[in-house]
Amino acid sequence: MSVDLLRARAALSRLFEPSDMVGLALVSAAGPEQALQIATGGRQVSSALIHKTAGILTSVGVAGKGYALAEGLKRWRPRVADLAPDRDLETIRRLGGELLIPEDPRWPEALSHLELGMPLCLWVRGQLAGGLPDMKRTVALVGSRDATGYGLSITGDLSAGLASRGYTVVSGGAYGIDAQAHRAALAATLPEAAGSGISTIAVMACGADRFYPAGNEDLLRAIAEHGLLLSEVPPGSAPTRWRFLQRNRIIAALSAVTVVVEARWRSGALNTAHHAAELGREVGAVPGSVYSANSAGCHRLLRDGSAVCVTDAQEVAELAGPLTQEVPEVAQAVESASQSGPGSAARAREKRSDHDGLAVEDLLLLDALPVRSDTSIDKLASVAGLPVAGVRAGLARLELEGLAIRAGPDGWRRGKR
Amino acid sequence: MSVDLLRARAALSRLFEPSDMVGLALVSAAGPEQALQIATGGRQVSSALIHKTAGILTSVGVAGKGYALAEGLKRWRPRVADLAPDRDLETIRRLGGELLIPEDPRWPEALSHLELGMPLCLWVRGQLAGGLPDMKRTVALVGSRDATGYGLSITGDLSAGLASRGYTVVSGGAYGIDAQAHRAALAATLPEAAGSGISTIAVMACGADRFYPAGNEDLLRAIAEHGLLLSEVPPGSAPTRWRFLQRNRIIAALSAVTVVVEARWRSGALNTAHHAAELGREVGAVPGSVYSANSAGCHRLLRDGSAVCVTDAQEVAELAGPLTQEVPEVAQAVESASQSGPGSAARAREKRSDHDGLAVEDLLLLDALPVRSDTSIDKLASVAGLPVAGVRAGLARLELEGLAIRAGPDGWRRGKR
After folding, report:
1. Do A173 and A182 touch, CB atoms closer than 8 A?
2. What is the 3-state secondary structure (H, E, C) of B346-363?
């Protein structure tokens, strides 16, 4: 892979804000190296290229007027003096990381679903040896920073359950739900399984050299060591609101499913969910109390049909679809041990009833059988509303099930299965 | 209306179990009076009638073999001796009630959607003067008997909110969610509004003369006095499992929306929801904790797409569609006072942020403005990634909003809206 390509994309990632569609169209039309020359004013832009760039913008629905590129050039000019791609590449290398670019075979295929909005590159720290995990085994867990105890609890259960099933948990490295998702995934990765997979990925809105927010420093350091920390903006970049919003599209694109665990009526997590829906990815939402403002955003997604209700790791895994890739044996063992998520517990508590699986006639007959006294077949026929022959046949069936007890030549009462 | 019709339907409702499709097909083919004569063995059944009955059964998808009617006759025979329609009619009259039959103009149109499964008649106690309320202003609230405090709380909020908006709340008169739904609807009916509408209807699985379960006697008595208590089975009938299941179809058919407030993974309330869905009625489910077994049934409905997520009375009312009928003024006043359900409270707590409604350029600029120091326009252009002219224009807009403060000839900092 050409060093010039790496340098060009490194520089462009500082010149352009994330999702600068004009810049991305220019790169698409001229290639990264020529685009950098043009964007920095080192090369005149031909009218053919202006036309081609405008065409690309029009094709993706961005108002692609002729002056879009001219506007872009004005926008990029003030940053040209700040460009130092070699320094940035050296910074990420010093941190044990590297710059991943679309020309690299390890570039995640899943990001190409962002089309023109695909990041220029990813500044990565962590265990990139085998590339990013397959989208099919990647799930995003997102939610509010000011999480409730309920939200933290279910996030821990979901994340641990998914990690132990062999899924990678993606989130945004923020306080609250994000931090809990990363933490539980890291903790669920057993020592024996270490190295067999990436349990968690944090996608940052700031440079990958910064641990932001500061309170998550230890956690983010652990992710950079045992998982992956990545960002489309170069080292030193500050986390701005725009970058937070754009960062969310990367979280959504990397994941087969995006689950919103807790979110207020208006929340950044909903933005991630919308990105996922736009990409045709599955969206899950965890229900909660209708009195909790932190679940209002989840209920909003459920209500408008944008999300599927998920209550445990198994249901999230079902949304992600079957795992085609091989799951390590250790993870399989953990999986079978951890089948008892909250939802499955609720189901398991439901015990089988006497009347389960009975045909209508037998149900009518069972209800007509007295518990504490005996009754005759004629009386049963009248009470149950069944023919006498039907009562005889039904009593034989119920007797086999232990639900009817013969108490004499013509006397019957109810039994207990 | 013919007394013979009343007597025939009264007798048939004792002879047939609810939803005895063969019996109902016979009534449909021969009319109630002739059907009674045949069902009681007082009249031979012609081969033409056998054919017609079988045809009706086939048309509704019930296996309509030729011997279906013969089987029915055997089933009904044991009950013939128990028939006493005059006594039953006298009983309901003595209780201040009456027998409502499909030939009565007050018969609710909504029940005809049950087609062949429409009840033969309804044994009614209560305020029937103006007939049953329009389906469009009727909502069913159903759920577990062993409700949690959470379930009771939201049921009370929903029911009171709906009743004060002019809706009639239908339920099954059972313990738990049902009882709370009836109670809150009765309580929400202000004295001034009394008589203007029926706040609640209990559909019973036993005879309307019985207050079952006994612990709800006072409540059911109040419903029979101020609302409506109804049943398709005649006075004296016991509540059997079959009758509970069939009763649910009446609850669903009478209501524009069926809301499951709390239900276990397997619950009778889900049966009501399925009836509602089969009738093409709206189904709502209230979300709750994923750790609560009592919400597992609701989440199941949300997950498989059978129900819409509802969190307050307003959302339920939206499902029911706009009220065409006139709402009493008192109810309107209460309505506007009670707009603050749980869901709306969660939304209201969300306050407007500084960056709301800003265009992307202004968002980038706002994030680039320092809070505690001043900065220059050139620096802002580089940090925000905007052209210098764009920064000037943006600062002017943000200054108008109070979000940017001029701190000298070329110095700017952030303001607070």
Report:
1. yes
2. HHHCCCCCCCCCCCHHHH
Strands A138-143 and B228-231: unpaired
Query: DSSP for A50-74?
Result: HHHHHHHHHHTTS---TTHHHHHHH
Strand A200-203 with A228-231, pairing: parallel
Overall average pLDDT of the B314-333 stretch:
67
Q: In this structure, what token pair is assigned to residue A265?
A: 């009526």
- Asked if residues B315 and B282 have their Cβ atoms less than 8 Å apart, the reply is no
| Both tokens assigned to A322 | 């079957």
Query: What average pLDDT does this structure show over B172-191?
Result: 91
CA distance A405 to A384: 17
Q: In the structure encoding, which two tokens stand for residue B175, read together?
A: 């313990």
Task: Give the B window 226-245 contacts with A, CB below 8 Å.
Answer: 240-242
A131–B contact, CB cutoff 8 A: no
Residue A351 DSSP class: P
Residues of B in contact with A367 (CB under 8 A): 240-242
φ and ψ at residue B351, rounded to 5 degrees: -95, 160
Position B329, amino acid: E
Among chain B residues, the shortest Cα distance to A360 is held by B242
Supply the ipTM of this predicted assembly: 0.82
DSSP β-ladder status, B308-309 and B412-414: unpaired
Residues B77-132 have pLDDT tens digits of: 999 999 999 999 999 999 999 999 999 999 999 999 999 999 999 999 998 988 99
Q: Which amino acid is at B57?
A: L
Q: Does A349 touch chain B (CB under 8 A)?
A: yes
d(CA A278, CA B114): 40
Residue A49: name the closest of A34, A71, A33, A63 by CA.
A34
- Record: contact B77-A387, CB cut-off 8 A: yes
Q: By the CB < 8 Å criterion, does A343 face chain B?
A: yes
Residue A343 has pLDDT above 60, yes or no: no
| pLDDT class of A326 with cuts at 50, 70, 90 | very low
CA atoms within 13 A on the CB side of B414: 16
Structure tokens at A154: 């279910």
pLDDT tens by residue, B136-172: 999 999 999 999 999 999 999 999 999 999 999 999 9
CA dihedral A106, A110, A113, A119 (to 10 degrees): -50
Judge contact between A385 and A361, C-beta under 8 A.
no
Distance from B192 to chain A by nearest Cα, in Å?
A: 31
B44 phi and psi angles, rounded to 5 deg: -70, 145
All structural domains of chain B, each given as residue ranges with its CATH number in brackets, are 3-82 (no CATH), 121-348 (3.40.50.450), 360-414 (1.10.10.10)
pLDDT digits (tens, 9 = 90+) for B229-288: 999 999 999 999 999 999 999 999 999 999 999 999 988 899 999 999 999 999 999 999
